[in-house]
């Protein structure tokens, strides 16, 4: 199979503020446009009868809308609240548009990081968000679906005031059944900073592409601006010295960034151990979501013992992440008695 066809006609979505869009059972009052892409717009709406805030995705292409709707209907086999996936409430056609009504969420992970001036996130935030997204990936695997577009813009906080770090995975416009991706090479999916090596190389694909993207999101949460600079092609020098780069084991043992709080050091090493397995170049060796949920970073941390103001040192992580490659197979988290799993 070749690349996904784009022969369908895209109709420009023209939606005005205060316009009312009607389905067979509901009416939606458009309040403002939240976002716009090549296939359509997302608007914040009020459901007229219940006054409930909703997110209405309005697509200008029948084909793109039909494909996304098929994927969302497959998600009905799952409980979206239990597996951290966005909830579709209804769909309808309006003036030639395909309209998808979703629960209203808060802000995207990218917007949150921008509000925080792209500073690295706290360890406990990274752990909780990663755990929820691993649950989502594990659920998608159970129904044979690949999201294929995991990035900070497609991860949304539910309600930061009530549930500060509860998130959901959104936007299934690029999602496909696993069998379709496995049908052959040549599918160009995923935004470039989150694109798996096998996609770039035109190899056969499976759900491992989502794990790679999630690993990139994890690095983004850890590094913030430094990750953005790196993925834009901006060279970041970890050291001005011309001396050979020390091994990962040496850096773990002697890095001054991790010599203070022992628990913080152990937790950071557990995070890096997980990240190393998420970013295996060989997709067959890349960690599965079910195994990642059993990783030490997800299961063993005791947040009651952690100062929530602590965050991962970006300079240390930049150095460490530069060493996460196939040559570090003997790496073990500092003071742990078993190999990374």
TrEMBL record:
Keywords: ATP-binding, Kinase, Nucleotide-binding, Serine/threonine-protein kinase, Transferase
Signal peptide positions (record): none
Entry GO terms, CC: cytoplasm; PML body
Keyword Calcium: no
Domain Protein kinase: start-end pairs: 28-298
InterPro entries reported for this sequence: Kinase-like_dom_sf, Prot_kinase_dom, Protein_kinase_ATP_BS, Ser/Thr_kinase_AS, Ser_Thr_dual-spec_kinase
Alphabetized SMART domains for the sequence: S_TKc
GO terms for biological process, alphabetical: intrinsic apoptotic signaling pathway in response to DNA damage by p53 class mediator; positive regulation of transcription by RNA polymerase II; smoothened signaling pathway
GO function terms (MF aspect): ATP binding; protein serine/threonine kinase activity; protein tyrosine kinase activity; SMAD binding; transcription coactivator activity; transcription corepressor activity
Binding residues annotated for ATP, in chain numbering: 57
UniProt superkingdom: Eukaryota
Family stated for the protein in its record: Belongs to the protein kinase superfamily.
Protein known as: Protein kinase domain-containing protein
Organism: Anabas testudineus (Climbing perch)
